[in-house]
Amino acid sequence: MFFERHGGGERAVLVHLEGQDPEAREDPQEFQELAVSAGADTIAFISVSRHQPTAKYLIGSGKVEELRDLVKAEEADLVIFNHTLTPSQERNLERAFECRVIDRTGLILDIFAQRARTHEGKLQVELAQLEHMSTRLVRGWTHLERQKGGIGLRGPGETQLETDRRLLRVRLRQIKGRLEKVRSQREQARRGRRRADIPSVSLVGYTNAGKSTLFNAVTQAQVYAADQLFATLDPTLRRLELADLGPIVLADTVGFIRHLPHKLVEAFRATLEESSNSDLLVHVIDAHEPERQAQIEQVLAVLGEIGAEGLPILEVYNKLDLLQSVEPQIQRGEDGKPQRVWLSARDGRGLELLEQAIAELLGHDLFVGTLCLPQHLGRLRAQFFALGAVQSEHHDAIGASVLAVRLPRVELNRLVSREGMEPEIFIEQHTLQ
């Protein structure tokens, strides 16, 4: 090993700006949680009141001097801004502080880089990092921006900066090509599920709302779940059998956050398409979070950005174990359909209500009933078996097949009309509403 990484977190000074436009204002508590998730050892949290950001430093020159003295006195390795910095502001602040400076986007990218486990996840993070780095590449190579002169060093070759930019462009093309292949593979898998008529359900929500804990509780999976921001990065899909509905595919997706960097939305489009192509979105909400309404609005904003705003949504208020005198329940709309489910993924209370609500919302066009087919309808009987719609079969006294079936109503109507049959083949039926 040529070097060893520091065993503990990097000593960081956090800088939060107050007085910004309400739409651009960030949450200071969330900022500190992001820093902890990245592994930073926070030695100071500085709140700066700034109504008119400056072009050179974002903050005033007096505050820059104050922060420089603090960085030197505390021997900080890093200064993190809870705001987006331009490349020139980042360079100017690094010269002033004589240490690394990153902004909110760089912090989130670092967390994503630590969490990526699959090959696809690593490619997506690398794409976002390279696109973010491309505007900041000059920072590390200012001493090589011009070709060196002098005896033996003159020549028409490209500068080191130009070489790095060219290599960066090549790598970006490679990653985008690989991710396009991943996207086509995911789309092929989705087409296969649609042909098999298996509904897909995606868990979406603000980061640390409890999506992975809920996913594990429902599917008995072993997805990594922790009380930290962006614990889940790579999507996980599991097949789940629901009573009165049959199989569904449940997907656990990456959590959203306030002002999710656009580069991440673009890089993770292949993953986020799992949500935008779902039959139902389960929006997991932290019921114990004081800022939950703001978090709900942020999730809806990101869903709109990925083209999933028109999909049916079931709200799930999680973490009832942290609330008092609130029982698991299903809240319904005026049409009687489930709108909200209150539950606790940690202790399992209310999980059966979630499965019931999903079955009701996805089963609105599902026929569940019993059919009586005389012996001369053997071909129709075979078609029901070929579709995997038969749950059980027995024969009555005259030898007719009595089938308990579950299949989409449109498929049932197609098969019955093709055979020219009448409704009396139904002994009993009910359609999930």
TrEMBL record:
<feature type="domain" description="Hflx-type G">
    <location>
        <begin position="199"/>
        <end position="366"/>
    </location>
</feature>
<keyword id="KW-0342">GTP-binding</keyword>
<dbReference type="Pfam" id="PF01926">
    <property type="entry name" value="MMR_HSR1"/>
</dbReference>
<keyword id="KW-0479">Metal-binding</keyword>
<keyword id="KW-0547">Nucleotide-binding</keyword>
<dbReference type="InterPro" id="IPR006073">
    <property type="entry name" value="GTP-bd"/>
</dbReference>
<comment type="function">
    <text>GTPase that associates with the 50S ribosomal subunit and may have a role during protein synthesis or ribosome biogenesis.</text>
</comment>
<keyword id="KW-0460">Magnesium</keyword>
<dbReference type="InterPro" id="IPR042108">
    <property type="entry name" value="GTPase_HflX_N_sf"/>
</dbReference>
<dbReference type="InterPro" id="IPR032305">
    <property type="entry name" value="GTP-bd_M"/>
</dbReference>
<comment type="subunit">
    <text>Monomer. Associates with the 50S ribosomal subunit.</text>
</comment>
<dbReference type="Pfam" id="PF16360">
    <property type="entry name" value="GTP-bdg_M"/>
</dbReference>
<dbReference type="InterPro" id="IPR025121">
    <property type="entry name" value="GTPase_HflX_N"/>
</dbReference>
<dbReference type="InterPro" id="IPR035647">
    <property type="entry name" value="EFG_III/V"/>
</dbReference>
<dbReference type="InterPro" id="IPR016496">
    <property type="entry name" value="GTPase_HflX"/>
</dbReference>
<dbReference type="InterPro" id="IPR027417">
    <property type="entry name" value="P-loop_NTPase"/>
</dbReference>
<keyword id="KW-0963">Cytoplasm</keyword>
<dbReference type="InterPro" id="IPR030394">
    <property type="entry name" value="G_HFLX_dom"/>
</dbReference>
<dbReference type="Pfam" id="PF13167">
    <property type="entry name" value="GTP-bdg_N"/>
</dbReference>
<protein>
    <recommendedName>
        <fullName>GTPase HflX</fullName>
    </recommendedName>
</protein>
<comment type="similarity">
    <text>Belongs to the TRAFAC class OBG-HflX-like GTPase superfamily. HflX GTPase family.</text>
</comment>
